[in-house]
Amino acid sequence: MQDDTITTIAGDTTTTALVRLDRVSKLFGGVHALEDVSFELSKGDVVGLVGDNGAGKSTLVKMLSGVFGPTSGSILIEGEPQTLTPPARAQKHGIETVYQDLALVSSFTVAENFFVGRERSWGRGPRLFQIMNRRSMTSTAASALEDLNITIPHLKSRPVERMSGGQRQMAAIARGAFWSERLLLLDEPTAALGVRESHEVLELVRALSARGLTMLMVTHNLEHLWSVCNRVIVMRRGKKVADLRSADTTMDEVVAYITGAKS
Amino acid sequence: MTNAQEQKTIGTPAPTSAPTRSFLARLPAAAIVGIFLVIVIVLFSTSASGFLTLNNVTTIISAASVIMIAALGQLLVVISGGFDLSVGGVIPLAAVLFSVLTTRGWPTAGALFACLLVGAVVGLIHTFFIVYLKVNPLITTLATLSVTGGIAFIASNGQTLSVPAAAGILGDQVVGTLPWHVLLMVLLVVLMHFVLQHSILGRRIYMIGGNPEAARIAGVRVIVIGGSAYVLSAVFASFAGVVLASQLLAASGTMGSQITLQSLAAVVLGGAALTGGRGSVPGAVIGVLLLGVIANGMTILLIPSFYQQVVSGVVLLAAVTFSRLQERAKRVA
Ligand SMILES: Nc1ncnc2c1ncn2[C@@H]1O[C@H](COP(=O)(O)OP(=O)(O)OP(=O)(O)O)[C@@H](O)[C@H]1O
Ligand SMILES: [Mg+2]
Question: Nearest CA to A90 among B144, B171, B217, B319?
Fold first, then answer.
């Protein structure tokens, strides 16, 4: 059954996949956080990644974002096996991540956070001694947000620590979308948010999807998943137990996979 | 009284009180200390005769210059998320070394360079332990404070050494009553402000203090950035030691030991947080001036120096308390 679903999805893909995981495993000490996970992401896919606590979702995301490498197996970008560690290398491959615990610098403004580690600058010589082109960074960040119809007041002057969780999450996703050329990874983007703010975040994900951005979104909320994703991958104890089109399945079936009632 | 007011604004969401609250929350911590500085200056100029004379202003700035130089280094380290207690040991070490070398006939520039080099070595040791091995900065710099201060004491044999007058250029005057070291201090202040606000190095020092994990993920080399902060701090402290020795034409194993606390206090008064990611050069300047003005005014009023210590401590506590209250007001706003 499990193998069937995999072959169905794989069989559909005629062109080279944007990203392909080939029998990826990750061991932490003796714990198999991931075990022989394989799947492909095609351009434009919006995949929901679900599973119980400790199923390996964040581990999978961190593997793709270059936080750590697989213990075995390989990751192929457009057909070529690639090393994605450290995160800066994954970024060079066009993979951006919105981490579960928000990798924003809280004392920086939204505009400053946009260019963390990738400052625009004047001058030659060692990068650290170059002069930042603050105006260019600020205006680019502002227009990137405007482009996505996100209004965050004081984005140039107010540190993000003085913004709401929703505003911070919108800023983090907008930053990811701005830089990602291949894949945007979202680890529980709505977990800490209220109803209205979650709605705004999902609205943004939908807008990005309409632009053709490929996304992999970890979530515990199936309603959220169904409202934006065209595919769902279920993890259980480090293994992939299902990989289905949202149109071909139901929430009940997905829950059954998550709990292990079905496998 | 401030407390009561604040509780009221937080408790009752009266629309009229909202502007006051956001005004208080928006005012940078350094600005409040700045206002306090002005009040203190007004107080002293009415009560201490001769306080607001050009001569005395020069005295204040001259005396503050050593603390300012050390505070610039301290500021970098505090913004990067650590702190440097060794300042009060590196200063006498550099002063004694400067005295020994110049007495032996080294050229002033050579002796200065050697002192800065020793500072850089101390900074590298801090980098290794604190940034690389992640040993607590309190323990590490407390240890190096003890080591550097101890070496200074041994090298000077517990005595006060003299510095040849010819080597005291930094303490000599250039324009009117303005000494060389003040000129250099102002230059360093401007330079460090520029570095922190406009260079990529500066931005990343804020970054590793504000969110080291985010910095690491963003590909920032935390060891290089954190290391530069510690090395610069120790180099600035050595320079402060040389300036102090040049001012006094003397050096001893205990001189400048109180500058650890003063530099930290100045930086914190100026809005830096010991949790990292916050602080500014203008803030540190205001902090140093406040401490300097209080010390000077009290000296003119013939108040013994141990009272000055008490007052400086109380001012620091008041500033820290106020910034905590302000932080809370911000959260609510
Ligand atoms: N850095 C690590 N070191 C050791 N074990 C780890 C590490 N990260 C994750 N694990 C283990 O790997 C397994 C998978 O964890 P992971 O964080 O990927 O789960 P998750 O699906 O994201 O769960 P959640 O829904 O709670 O976020 C767990 O057993 C976890 O304890
Ligand atoms: Mg997780």
Answer: B217
